[in-house]
């Protein structure tokens, strides 16, 4: 926890000098100032009346700084190296190793799928930043990358909320109809995917994501957009996402965990209290760290950024891109949530790492159960002999 807090502090310190060094660029004669997605830039026209974009000094300092060309790709590389194999293994475990598809396994499998679909696009993002924030892969791929970026964040939030509520329900009502709950979990998962697809569709259909910056000779992806696509409409769009797909689910998650702790404290079995409370506390800490580090800064700064942008102020964008970068860390934290929630997942991972097949695992379990049963039978036989001897002596 202390190490993670130190990393976050270093990140914000790196972004601070860039954010505080904002100097608005003056408008050139004959050119129209254009408020763009992330910066206040200048729309220019050359001698042939071909329009382009020229960013101000602050925007130029951000797009050429080590923050965006060194630090961000470094974080994405680390997340890609860790997240790709871990989530691929998690998805494989849930699909091929988990025999009983209970609701928690369904939500975790969807969470792993969302992370995997997101991480596979990281090489394009890494290449973009290492190439000086110059996008060379066309408008279509840029739109796909942006959609997966925001889609993964909100998809993770919703499935984490479902998982939290489901864990609370298991604690409160441990004896429930698994088959019925499984059908509900499948229906909720399908609904979430449809909602995320429809919710991120405007980013793909209605907005041009690539813009040519003349004074830097680069083409940005989602970092600069024309004025007519921005300001109030984008502010309303992201404010709706932040409220509907982040703040309400976050409130529901916190409520579920508070009620879970109260239920565990009210339990009458002293032995089960300690184990259940410990597992619940571990899960709560993991989820809260995920919300704190990954989701909260990006959603708050996202709304603040577009709110300031409506009034011609874009000085928080460096903080915004850092918070958006940190939100990708959830792809590495999710497997720890699986580990805390599911005992089957822990066992399957251990067996997979030991290269044990499903048949071998079942054989070992059958052998262990047989030995356990034989010991019980032996104890029962010994007890019956003692009872018979006692009766005879009497």
Description of the structure:
This protein is mostly helical. The chain has a domain at 79-211 and 228-345: Rhodopsin 7-helix transmembrane proteins (Rhopdopsin 7-helix transmembrane proteins). The protein has 13 helices and 5 strands. The chain has helices at residues 2-19, 57-63, 66-97, 103-119, 122-130, 138-172, 178-205, 231-265, 270-309, 317-327, 330-341, 343-353, 358-393, and strands at residues 32-35, 40-45, 51-55, 210-213, 218-221. A 3-stranded antiparallel sheet has the order 1-2-3. A two-stranded antiparallel sheet has the order 4-5. A hairpin with a 4-residue loop joins strand 1 (32-35) and strand 2 (40-45). The protein is elongated, with a radius of gyration of 27 Å. Residues 1-37 and 386-394 have low confidence and may be disordered.
Detail the topology: elements first, then pairings.
Layout: H1 2-19, E1 32-35, E2 40-45, E3 51-55, H2 57-63, H3 66-97, H4 103-119, H5 122-130, H6 138-172, H7 178-205, E4 210-213, E5 218-221, H8 231-265, H9 270-309, H10 317-327, H11 330-341, H12 343-353, H13 358-393
Antiparallel strand pairs: 1-2, 2-3, 4-5
Helix pairs in contact: 1-10, 3-4, 3-5, 3-10, 3-11, 3-12, 4-6, 4-7, 4-11, 6-7, 6-8, 8-9, 9-10, 9-11
Subcellular location: Cell membrane
GO biological process, one term: blood coagulation
Pfam family, one: 7tm_1
